[in-house]
């Protein structure tokens, strides 16, 4: 890639005259742990602890006084940004500083994009000064592994992609009508029975506690948080199929492989319901790596308003008991949520009032408006996979929107961040997943990272044009959007 193709666009990029820094023979200084961050980002240097054969040095440091030195690097709310960073690249010295190791992860993602192949095949970094910080502190993807299961290694590939575009959250939708994907030791039938089911054409499977912990560690090493979601009180057929005890008549429901939504539910009058919620949300809180747990709350269409609120409040209380904060889909804003919850906005066809109420009550909104951010939507009528209920999403649609302009009454101060949505009723393999994510994920990454006033579609379109070289090299399938003049 090159300095003129950075995505997301940093706050400030100054290119300097002079010969490039020679990257492939450089040494790294800083602690070994910091050096490992560089190696993980795939910046081809000699490796931590191994002196390079050249004169170049990459110097990494965490600077506790960073914000005093860079007072402008704040987020959308004017708060200091943990993920801010500064890079100065000169002929023989690349200095990288950040207020936290997380900021260094973002810096080296940029460094990886700065590396160019010199004419003689060696690797160079152009001399430059880059100052950067994100607009929003939450930049992620909601990934449905319930309709179709994705293996740990495939999710690691997704983590790599998120980290490359400086995104920080992998939200895993771990249960739905079609399957249950994370082991709950006290309720083994959830995965024994519903781990082997899936949506039509989708893959089945589940994560053991150890496998999930391995993914969480891998993600955390790359500055990515894993946010688990168990969806209640609708989208629960996998649970009621495994445990008839959740049904008023005590009988398990049939397995479901179709793509209908909104038909399944939990019952507040059934005593086992509460125990179930306490157990599953405790497991979610032990499994995830961030401050939040997602309780679902979408499309409980068969439930009375009263039962819905009661059950959402029960789920939220089960999460609060573990010390974590609650995230729910927008409908959950109609319930009484614990302080500092987050509601995830997805559908303009569903009543917006719960979202407005939630914000009025001091909660904040995670923006995933389906017509711009649901990447299970087809690009156009010729896309071989996906759906179209929220319309087609070609690259301009994924790029040209402002999170602060989505909902009347909700501005910057009510927004925590942005997530893409990826639902897998009709997207079943890693190749299909990547084809739907690329090039839209980089567009969403820039929506969530770069301040609105610095974003420009024509400029983005030209910067993204040579990223396909990286996707090919990483063996990732991608959609050749006709909107872009691809370099290869
Ligand atoms: C709506 S988004 C859903 C999902 C579907 C998706 C398909 C949301 C909160 N619920 O259950 O998979 O549409 O695009």
Model description:
The chain has 488 residues and is of the alpha/beta class. The protein is built from 16 helices and 17 strands. An eight-stranded parallel β-barrel has the order 10-11-12-13-14-15-16-17, surrounded by six helices. A hairpin with a 5-residue loop joins strand 7 and strand 8 (123-125). The longest helix has 17 residues, at 305-321. The mean pLDDT is 96. The protein binds ligand TNX. Ligand TNX binds at residues 261, 298-299, 329, 346, 374, 376, 387, 421, 423, 425.
Give the helix/strand class.
alpha/beta
Largest sheet, spatial ordering of strands: 10-11-12-13-14-15-16-17
What does the overall shape look like? globular
Mind summarizing the main beta sheet?
8 strands, parallel, barrel
Mean pLDDT comes to: 96
Give structural attributes.
488 residues; alpha/beta; 6-stranded mixed sheet; 16 helices; 17 strands; globular; binds ligand TNX
Task: Draw up the topology in text.
Elements: E1 12-15, E2 21-22, E3 27-29, H1 32-40, E4 57-62, H2 66-69, E5 85-89, E6 93-98, H3 101-114, E7 116-117, E8 123-125, E9 128-132, E10 138-144, H4 152-164, E11 169-173, H5 189-194, H6 209-221, E12 225-232, H7 237-242, H8 272-287, E13 292-296, H9 305-321, E14 325-329, E15 342-345, H10 353-360, E16 364-367, H11 370-373, H12 395-399, E17 415-422, H13 430-437, H14 440-449, H15 457-464, H16 467-473
Helix pairs in contact: 4-6, 8-9
In short:
The protein is α/β, with parallel strands linked by helices and 488 residues long. It contains 16 helices and 17 strands.
């Amino acid at each position: 890639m090159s300095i003129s193709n950075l995505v997301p666009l940093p706050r400030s990029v100054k290119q300097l005259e002079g010969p490039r820094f020679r990257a492939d023979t450089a040494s790294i200084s800083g602690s070994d742990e910091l050096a490992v961050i560089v190696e993980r980002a795939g910046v081809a240097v000699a490796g931590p602890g191994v002196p390079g054969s050249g004169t170049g040095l990459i110097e990494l440091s965490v600077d506790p006084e960073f914000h005093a030195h860079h007072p402008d690097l704040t987020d959308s709310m004017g708060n200091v940004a943990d993920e801010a960073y500064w890079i100065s690249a000169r002929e023989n010295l690349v200095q990288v500083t950040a207020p936290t190791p997380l900021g260094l992860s973002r810096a080296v993602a940029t460094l990886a994009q700065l590396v160019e192949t010199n004419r003689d095949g060696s690797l160079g970094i152009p001399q430059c000064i880059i100052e950067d910080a994100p607009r929003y502190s939450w930049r992620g993807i909601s990934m449905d592994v319930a309709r179709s299961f994705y293996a740990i290694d495939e999710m690691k590939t997704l983590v790599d992609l998120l980290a490359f575009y400086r995104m920080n959250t992998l939200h895993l939708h771990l249960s739905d009508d079609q399957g249950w994907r994370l082991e709950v030791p006290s309720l083994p039938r959830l995965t024994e029975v519903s781990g082997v089911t899936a949506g039509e054409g989708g893959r089945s499977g589940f994560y053991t506690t150890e496998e999930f912990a391995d993914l969480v560690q891998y993600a955390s090493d790359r500055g990515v948080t894993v946010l688990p979601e168990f969806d209640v009180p609708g989208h629960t057929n996998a649970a009621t199929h495994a445990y008839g005890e959740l049904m008023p008549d005590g009988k398990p429901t049939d397995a479901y492989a179709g793509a209908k939504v909104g038909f399944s539910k939990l019952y507040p009058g059934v005593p086992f319901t509460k125990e179930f919620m306490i157990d599953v949300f405790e497991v979610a809180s032990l499994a995830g790596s961030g401050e939040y747990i997602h309780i679902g709350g979408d499309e409980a269409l068969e439930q009375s308003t009263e039962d819905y609120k009661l059950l959402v409040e029960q789920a939220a209380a089960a999460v609060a008991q573990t010390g974590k904060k609650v995230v729910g889909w927008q409908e959950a804003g109609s319930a009484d949520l614990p302080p500092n919850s987050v509601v995830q906005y997805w559908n303009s066809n569903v009543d917006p009032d719960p979202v407005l109420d939630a914000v009025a009550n001091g909660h904040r909104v995670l923006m995933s408006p389906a017509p711009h951010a649901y990447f299970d939507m087809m690009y156009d009528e010729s896309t071989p996979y996906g759906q179209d209920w929220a319309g087609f999403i070609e690259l301009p649609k994924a790029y040209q929107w402002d999170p602060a302009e989505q909902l009347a009454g909700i501005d910057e101060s009510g927004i925590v961040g942005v997530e893409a949505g990826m639902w897998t009723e009709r997207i079943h393999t890693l190749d299909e997943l990547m084809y739907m994510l690329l090039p839209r994920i980089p567009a969403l990454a820039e929506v969530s990272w770069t301040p609105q006033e610095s974003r420009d579609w024509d400029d983005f379109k030209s910067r993204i044009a040579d990223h396909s070289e990286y996707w090919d090299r990483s063996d990732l399938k991608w959609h050749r959007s006709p909107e872009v003049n691809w370099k290869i």
